[in-house]
Design a protein that fits this description.
The chain is mostly helical. It contains 44 helices and ten strands. The strands form three sheets. A five-stranded parallel beta sheet has the order 2-3-4-1-5, sandwiched between helices. The protein has a three-stranded antiparallel beta sheet with strand order 8-10-9. It has a two-stranded antiparallel sheet with strand order 6-7.
Length: 856
């Protein structure tokens, strides 16, 4: 893998920067030209990719040898042209003062176009011109006249402000030319850019931060990526590239934004300086500096945004990259001067971002906020998945002299949670010891504090040390210390049931869920739903689990602020319910919900989910990239218990690609992490490891499948029994498959959804021995997200050949395989010919028979 230092040289040069997220825009431009439009103008803000889109479309025209179009690139207009009109710059001659638009246009037509007597076809001339907004009115009139002649098309770019010159704007309004309006890149496009630009996978968190910092501006994305790489802020965290430092500016970013910042007037600079430091400022505090003209100018440049919702209007910075650049240009004295203009924020009246920014600003000025404000900001940092910064703020609060006992308790709890989330288990335990010491010294701890500290302690015991029984004992002890039958006792009972689900004791969760709901109507009941949904789905009722997940997702609201990952956990439970119901199409869709800003975005969980989506659809290379990205992010934080699940998916993906060493390593990592894994999806994870071992042809697979079935039976997990019995049929000798079908059929009847029917159909086809039926049944398995491997050990296939062989066995055509792997049909057929040669067959049906036989 490329080192951090050599990564600087591995990034593509600017001229070869990947064009991602603009493919549809370029295609639309070409479609408009081919449909007879007089031209197309690409509109957008600076750096949004206007020239890139136009150049990509024009390159396709030039590369099309059969096209009747000829492209003429015109020079870019100059802002300071010494009084010359653009046509004078272009032609290199001075036009007469009395020259008319028609006369100049006719002169240009005579120069550029052939004699009208030339027989058809007459080439279509495309004039390509950047920065149409800089063209003077006379020259714009000439360009408009050229377009209306009918023999010339115009392809240009223009900023939204000041917009097109009047003559060209009239052409657009009259329908003679079209425009393509560009919007910022999506988060998904940033992910694809990183995939194309970096020599290896990147964490989703890195893509998300780039997207947030740049507001999707392609130029800013590119330059910020160059900047953080050159600063050494991007490192390879074992599995993928991660952005390891806070956003900070350097000379590159200052120069990039200089044209937007250095030309500001004094009044404009006062506004943006204050807003960049404060994140958001009430409009009333900016008066009288912020006149309407000043605000309008700054809004047009994209430097600020006016928010006029409920309450007093506020002003905030355009996007974080501007804010960080502006802050870097301010000297300490100026920061201190501006700081005095704003009062200390109130957590009840200011947004979380405003609160955190004010605290950062105070600390930069050498001022110490009150403990209450520090703790409020630390709680926000923790909610935003920034545990290191939360712990630092808690430490500052604890250092305050004469800190009252209630605030000290709050600070210790915050510090313990933050240290736990940052993976610093010893520091978290030390915080809990100090908390117990306070109680021993006479500080009365409310029941809510007892519950919170027990949660942290139990979480450390289970996730960090894999001791489920110890974690349950901690919760049981805490239950004896709180009021019997009270709210705290209810919360601890719910916590215990949830921990049982984490530990894979699903039967106890199924038995306890209903009585717990009946015992108390408490917001924490919803936090138990994910464990119950997992248990219900694996007990053979995935359709009921899916419905329950969608219902509970809609119930998440402000009263669940103490459970910031609740919606993410419910989304994950819904995903797996859909997978086990054989509905990957539902798994990849998201139900509607109301965003409240309280629930936390877990980038590692999201990227792991994306990797599993690729597994479901057989896109192994992308599955590997996303699963490795998820592991890299998980490696920077505290254990979540999900690491083993990710390794099992990696084992399957590597095995399906024929990457034997990587698959074996993933299987080993899965086994090592089993003691502390989140066993909510253990049955699925173990199944994928079995599929990997099947592909690798490892010894002891039959015993492994039998043990898997026994484990599932002991826990009442009918889904696991079904999956295991199907694997028994797959790996059995042809003569023995019939005796196993009855058990498979029995299991299929006990599990809801399309998955059970597809597994049974495939088992029956294998038993019948008809290659066509086997191929059709394998295609049915692929439709429900099950991909059986092509055993590379017997046929000695390359990774790419193994991918293609598995897809052929699933009934996919060469065209479908090419689209999935992003290769040509000819390349697919070339690989297929080599697979046929190694297998000694001539047809797809014969290959399916060989692949089936190799499992004996």
């Amino acid at each position: 893998m490329v080192s951090q230092e050599s990564l600087k040289h591995a990034l593509p040069p600017r001229v070869h920067w990947p064009i991602v997220g603009r493919e549809e825009d370029a295609a639309l431009l070409l479609q408009r030209l081919s449909s007879g439009s007089g031209g197309v103008v690409v509109m957008g803000s600076p750096g949004i990719g206007k020239s890139t889109v136009a150049a990509a479309a024009l390159a396709q025209i030039r590369d099309n040898n059969q096209s009747n179009q000829h492209v003429l690139l015109l020079p870019t207009p100059q802002e300071q042209a010494g009084g010359l009109s653009y046509v004078e710059q272009w032609l290199g001659v001075t036009t007469a003062v009395a020259a008319t638009i028609d006369a100049v246009a006719d002169q240009i037509l005579a120069r550029l176009l052939p004699d009208p007597a030339v027989p058809d076809p007459v080439p279509v001339l495309i004039l390509a011109l950047d920065d149409l907004h800089l063209v003077d009115n006379f020259s714009a009139g000439v360009l408009a006249r050229l377009v209306t002649d009918g023999r010339i098309q115009l392809v240009g770019t223009s900023r939204e402000e000041p917009g097109l010159p009047p003559a060209l704007n009239s052409l657009w309004r009259g329908g003679r030319i079209d425009r393509v309006d560009l919007v910022p890149l999506s988060y998904e496009s940033i992910r694809l850019i990183l995939r194309a630009a970096l020599p290896g996978p990147a964490s989703n968190d890195m893509a998300y931060r780039l997207w947030q910092a740049t507001a999707g501006n392609p130029l800013h994305v590119r330059e910020l990526l160059y900047s953080i790489v050159e600063a050494g802020d991007v490192s390879y965290a074992e599995h993928a590239w991660v952005w390891t430092a806070p956003l900070r500016t350097n000379r590159r970013l200052v120069d990039l934004l200089a044209s937007d910042i250095t030309t500001l007037s004094g009044a404009e600079r006062d506004v943006v300086d204050l807003v960049s430091l404060a994140e958001s400022v009430p409009l009333s505090l900016l008066a009288p500096t912020a006149t309407d003209a000043v605000l309008s100018s700054l809004v047009d440049r994209g430097l600020i945004v006016l928010a006029t919702g409920h309450g007093e209007p506020t002003v905030r910075i355009g996007h974080p990259l501007y804010a960080e650049t502006l802050r870097s240009l301010l000297y300490p004295r100026r920061k201190r001067e501006l700081f005095g203009l704003l009062p200390e924020p109130s957590p009840e009246q200011h947004s979380p971002q405003e609160l955190c920014r004010w605290v950062d600003w105070a600390l930069e000025c050498g001022l110490m906020p009150s403990p209450q404000v520090l703790l409020a900001a630390g709680t926000v940092r923790e909610r935003f998945s920034q545990p290191e910064r939360a712990a630092a703020l808690a430490a500052l609060a604890l250092n305050h002299e004469q800190l009252p006992p209630p605030e000290r308790v709050t600070a210790l709890l915050l510090s313990a949670r933050a240290n736990r989330d940052a993976g610093r288990s010893e520091s978290a335990e030390a915080d809990l010891v100090l908390l117990r010491t306070l109680a021993e010294q006479g500080t009365a701890l409310p029941d809510a504090v007892t519950v919170a500290s027990a949660r942290i302690h139990a979480d450390l015991c289970q996730r960090h040390f894999g001791d489920l029984d110890g974690a349950l004992a901690i919760l049981a002890q805490a239950a004896q210390e709180v009021e019997p039958g009270g709210v705290a006792a209810t919360e601890l009972a719910i916590e215990q049931l949830g921990l049982l689900g984490f530990g894979g004791r699903h039967a106890e969760v199924l038995a306890g869920y209903g009585p717990q709901l009946a015992a108390a109507n408490h917001p924490a009941n919803v936090s138990l739903a994910p464990s119950y949904i997992y248990a219900l789905a694996q007990a053979g009722r995935p359709l009921e689990a899916l419905e329950l997940a969608e219902t509970n997702i809609k119930l998440v609201g402000g009263e669940h602020a103490d459970f910031p990952l609740l919606r993410a956990r419910l989304m994950a439970a819904r995903f797996w319910s859909a997978v086990w119901a054989g509905r990957p199409d539902l798994a990849v869709t998201l139900p509607e919900y109301v965003e409240d800003g309280i629930q936390r975005h877990d980038s590692a969980l999201y990227q792991a989910g994306a990797g599993y989506v690729y597994l479901l659809f057989g896109v192994w290379e992308q599955a590997v990239a996303d699963l490795r990205g998820a592991l890299s992010r998980m490696g920077l934080l505290a254990p979540t218990g999900l690491e083993a699940m990710v390794w099992s998916g990696l084992a399957q993906a590597h095995a399906m690609r024929g990457e034997r060493a990587e698959a074996l390593h993933a299987c080993q990592q899965f086994e090592e992490l089993l003691p502390a894994m989140d066993r909510s999806v253990e049955v699925d994870s173990r199944y994928r490891v079995l599929l990997a071992k099947l592909a690798l042809g490892l010894e002891g697979l039959e015993q492994g499948i039998s043990g898997y079935i026994a484990l599932a039976q002991s826990q009442g997990l009918l889904l696991g029994v079904l999956l295991g019995r199907h694997l028994q049929v797959v790996t059995a000798a042809p003569g023995l498959r019939g005796s196993l079908l009855a058990a498979l059929a029995e299991s299929a009847e006990q599990v809801q959804g399309q998955l059970s029917a597809a597994l049974l159909a495939h088992g029956q086809a294998l038993n019948d021995g008809d290659a066509g039926a086997v191929s059709a049944a394998a295609a049915g398995l692929a439709q429900v997200g099950i991909w059986l491997p092509a055993p590379a050990k017997v046929l000695a296939l390359t990774p790419r050949q193994q991918e293609i062989a598995a897809m052929v066995a699933a009934g996919m055509t060469s065209k479908s395989i090419g689209e999935k792997l992003n290769i040509s049909v000819r390349t697919v057929d070339t690989h297929l010919g080599r697979i046929f040669a190694r297998a000694g067959v001539n047809t797809r049906a014969q290959l399916t028979q060989v692949l089936t036989a190799t499992f004996e």
